[in-house]
From TrEMBL:
A zinc finger (CR-type) spans 161-239. Zn(2+) 2 binds at C191, C194, C213, C216. The gene is dnaJ. Keywords: Chaperone, Cytoplasm, DNA replication, Metal-binding, Repeat, Stress response, Zinc, Zinc-finger. SMART domains: DnaJ (SM00271). Belongs to the DnaJ family. Its cofactor is Zn(2+). Residues 161-239 form the CR-type domain. The J domain is necessary and sufficient to stimulate DnaK ATPase activity. Zinc center 1 plays an important role in the autonomous, DnaK-independent chaperone activity of DnaJ. Zinc center 2 is essential for interaction with DnaK and for DnaJ activity. Signal peptide: none annotated. Pfam families: DnaJ, DnaJ_C, DnaJ_CXXCXGXG. Homodimer. It comes from Mycobacterium deserti. This is Chaperone protein DnaJ. CXXCXGXG motif repeats lie at residues 174-181, 191-198, 213-220, 227-234.
Length: 391
């Protein structure tokens, strides 16, 4: 992103957080906004625009390195020779520039530079700052920003893995100029003001300052004939659908990195990465404990007392689980290797909990039989509360 945009945009304000907000606060604020504004849930075009802005703010503020760079760029422009809106004339080498207290608008400066090729302003600054103070550096393409998105999966999709289309609204390389920013048939040239370094230095008293080059907006190159589609940025916003492979075994809240699926790089630089936070809908039957698949099976008292074999669903078909006679209610039976696929290969286990279901009402033969059984049980000497609560 161009320095100019960083100077103009208040990402903190976009996310509604203070400039000293913690990473957690930023994440929280973004997630709330993203939920409200995502084009999948909010069809309002204004919301979609806001979503782009908020995503952009988040992509910068969530990355500590980028956030630092952003903060520094803004501080530089706020405190440096380029007072925001006012050109500081007092101390240094700028005496007389802009007249007595005349407002010098940074935007005018940039706009003029962008639209006219900046010849006059370039000469002016070149004269003030001195040319060639910096070693020439090659132009700096900028790697694309990482993107964040969220998706909701069913329990089975999350455990077994799924290939799914994911709709993304993000900047992408301009198809007209193939991301160069220059009108087709032309190409960007090295900025003569900074010799391609993107920064200029000036001396003020005993101190030397480096500032982003205003002529090329810190990019080091100048596009004399900007592409009509993208206005020279090399990037246009588009909604695209990418096919994403969610690996098996992802958990609720997990963030998956998809390399190279993020925002397009500026001027041919590599793309950023896409991070997908997965929300898993709970399942009616299955639960998870790490790589183990959990399931609770309702059983009759007699099935536990006499023993049986239960037919239990798994991720892949059913499995017969033997319940030994005399199994107590709530016991967990483990079936090895029938759980959730592990990232390291293989599967976790299936954990089957047996839970007695009591008939809500018993009548007739069944009730009589149970009465008979109750007598027989007492006669056998079985006391369910033997040794319980000090008895
Ligand atoms: Zn273009
Ligand atoms: Zn420059």
């Amino acid at each position: 992103m161009a320095q100019r945009e960083w100077v103009e945009k208040d990402f903190y304000k976009e996310l509604g957080v203070s400039s000293d907000a913690s990473e957690q606060d930023i994440k929280k604020a973004y997630r709330k906004l993203a939920r409200d504004l995502h084009p999948d849930t909010n069809p309002d075009p204004a919301a979609s625009e806001r979503f782009k802005t908020v995503s952009e703010a988040h992509s910068v503020l969530s990355d500590p390195a980028k956030r630092k760079e952003y903060d520094e760029t803004r501080r530089l422009f706020a405190n440096g020779g380029f007072g925001r809106g006012r050109f500081a004339g007092g101390g240094g080498g700028f005496g007389g520039f802009g007249g007595d207290g005349a407002e010098f608008n940074l935007n005018d400066l940039f706009d003029a530079a962008g639209q006219t090729g900046g010849a006059n302003i370039g000469d002016l600054f070149g004269g003030l700052f001195g040319r060639g103070a910096q070693q020439p550096r090659p132009t700096r393409p900028r790697r694309g920003n990482d993107l964040e998105t969220e998706t909701e999966l069913s329990f089975l999709e999350a455990t077994k893995g799924v290939a799914m289309p994911l709709r993304l609204t993000s900047p992408a390389p301009c198809t007209n100029c193939h991301g160069s920013g220059a009108r087709p048939g032309t190409s960007p040239k090295v900025c003569p003001n900074c010799n391609g370094s993107g920064v200029v230095s000036r001396n003020q008293g005993a101190f030397g300052f480096s500032e982003p080059c205003t002529e090329c907006r810190g990019s080091g190159s100048i596009i004399e004939h900007p592409c009509d589609e993208c206005k020279g940025t090399g990037v246009t916003t588009r909604t695209r659908t990418i096919n994403v492979r969610i690996p098996p075994g992802v958990e609720n809240g997990q963030r998956i990195r998809l390399a190279g699926q993020g925002e397009a790089g500026l001027r041919g630089a590599p793309s950023g990465d896409l991070y997908v936070t997965v929300h898993v809908r709970p399942d009616r039957v299955f639960g998870r404990d790490g790589d183990d698949l959990t399931v609770t099976v309702p059983v009759s008292f007699h099935e536990l007392a006499l023993g049986t074999t239960l037919s239990v669903p798994t991720l892949e078909g059913k499995v017969g689980v033997r319940v030994p006679k005399g199994t107590s209610d709530g016991r967990i039976l483990r079936v090895r290797g029938r759980g959730v696929p592990k990232r390291s290969g293989g599967h976790g286990d299936l954990l089957v909990t047996v839970k007695v279901a009591v008939p809500p009402s018993l009548e007739g033969e069944a009730a009589e039989a149970l009465e008979t059984y109750a007598k027989a049980e007492r006669a056998s000497g079985f006391d369910p509360r033997a040794g319980w609560a000090g008895a």
